Amino acid sequence: MTEARARRSVTETVRWLMARGLYAGTSGNVSARAAGGMLITPTGVPCDEVDAASIAFVTADGRARGRLAPSSEWRIHRDLYRSRPDVGAVVHTHSTAATALSCLRRRIPAFHYMVAKAGGDDIRCAHYATYGTAALSRNALAALSGGRRACLLANHGLLALGADLASARALAEEIEALCAQYIQARVAGTPVILPAREMLRVRAKFATYGRRKGVD
Question: What's the domain count of the chain?
Answer without folding.
Answer: 1
